[in-house]
């Protein structure tokens, strides 16, 4: 394991020792984010968001300059860099552990040069050049399961049930093939994290089943598992409520608590303080069970 991926892993391990899981806070520097509608698109607002995430207890700050909602258009690398580079630099100056949410090798290279220590790839390594950039920098690589591009992806509820035989087995198999390509490009297996990609090329039932069976994912891979359920539409479907993303915080916290119990290493969340409080209280109560 190389220096940056080691630093990333140490951050995760310290957080897990303290509360059982690491919290990756989301900073979307986009005008069309599904979760916040572009609230942090302005450079100052994005820097303030970084500060907010750190104040709330985020262990990792995940910065992205391209929306990953279904149907979102691709954003050229130069535009992504213009959106996120100064935000990444600000976060690094603040002492944050920074991951970059991108599928672009060019964007990754610029931000790794600025001090990011991980790349969060939501494409399941569609472009193997990205793995080469990560390998050269010694960074960590989050590989998220997905099929197709965001532009091609239909709404979460429209994905056919028959697209997967056994969703856990199929996702693991496709993820392992992507992991093999990353290792072949020079990324050590120890620098990888696995994300099952809730909501990506999956309908609500697929995503809920992956979350419910998260412990199987944890047992099946020898790398940390990251889950991003926060504010996603499948949560509203599970509770039969057509809530907007910002109204799904309760369901998001319930999903987070389940993932922690399943042994997930990292949670990617929008509401860091609320999630941290819930996890910390659950741990405190567990320690009190049985009395003196």
Content of β-strand: 5-15%
Structural class: alpha/beta
What is the CATH topology assignment? TIM Barrel
Total number of strands: 8
CATH hierarchy class name:
Alpha Beta
Largest sheet: 8 strands, parallel
Considering DSSP H and I runs of 4 or more, what fraction of the residues is helical? 40-55%
Q: Distance N terminus to C terminus?
A: 43 Å
- Average pLDDT level: 92
Name the CATH architecture.
Alpha-Beta Barrel
What would you note in describing this structure?
This protein is α/β, with parallel strands linked by helices and 292 residues long. It has one domain (3-286): Alpha-Beta Barrel (TIM Barrel). The chain is built from eleven helices and eight strands. It has helices spanning 3-19, 43-56, 77-93, 105-113, 128-137, 167-184, 204-212, 214-220, 233-238, 249-262, 272-288, and strands spanning 22-28, 60-64, 98-101, 118-121, 140-144, 192-195, 226-227, 266-269. Strands 6-5-4-3-2-1-8-7 form an eight-stranded parallel sheet. Helix 4 packs parallel to helix 5 (128-137). The radius of gyration is 18 Å and the shape is globular. 51% of the residues are buried. The model has no long low-confidence stretch (mean pLDDT 92).
């Amino acid at each position: 394991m190389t220096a940056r991926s080691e630093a990333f892993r140490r951050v995760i391990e310290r957080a897990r020792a303290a509360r059982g899981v690491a919290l990756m806070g989301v900073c979307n520097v986009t005008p069309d984010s599904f979760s916040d509608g572009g609230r942090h698109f302005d450079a100052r607002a994005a820097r303030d968001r970084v500060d907010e995430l750190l104040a709330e207890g985020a262990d990792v700050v995940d910065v992205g300059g391209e929306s990953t909602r279904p149907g979102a258009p691709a954003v050229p690398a130069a535009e992504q860099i213009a959106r996120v580079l100064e935000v990444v630099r600000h976060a690094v100056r603040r002492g944050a552990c920074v991951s970059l949410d991108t599928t672009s090798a060019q964007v990754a290279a610029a931000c790794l040069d600025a001090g990011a220590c991980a790349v969060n790839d939501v494409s399941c390594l569609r472009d193997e050049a990205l793995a080469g950039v990560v390998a050269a920098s010694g960074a960590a690589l989050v590989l998220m399961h997905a099929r197709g591009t965001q532009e091609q992806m239909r709404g979460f509820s429209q994905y056919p049930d028959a697209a997967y035989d056994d969703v856990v087995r199929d996702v693991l198999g496709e993820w392992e093939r992507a992991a093999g390509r990353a290792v072949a490009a020079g990324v050590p297996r120890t620098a990888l994290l696995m994300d099952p990609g809730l909501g990506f090329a999956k309908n609500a039932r697929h995503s809920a089943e992956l979350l419910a069976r998260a412990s199987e994912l944890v047992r099946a891979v020898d790398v940390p598992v990251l889950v991003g359920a926060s504010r996603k539409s499948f949560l509203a479907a599970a509770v039969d409520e057509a809530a907007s993303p910002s109204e799904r915080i309760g369901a998001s916290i319930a999903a987070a608590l389940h993932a922690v119990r399943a042994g997930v290493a990292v949670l990617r969340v929008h509401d860091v303080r609320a999630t941290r409080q819930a996890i910390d209280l659950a741990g405190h109560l567990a320690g009190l069970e049985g009395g003196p």
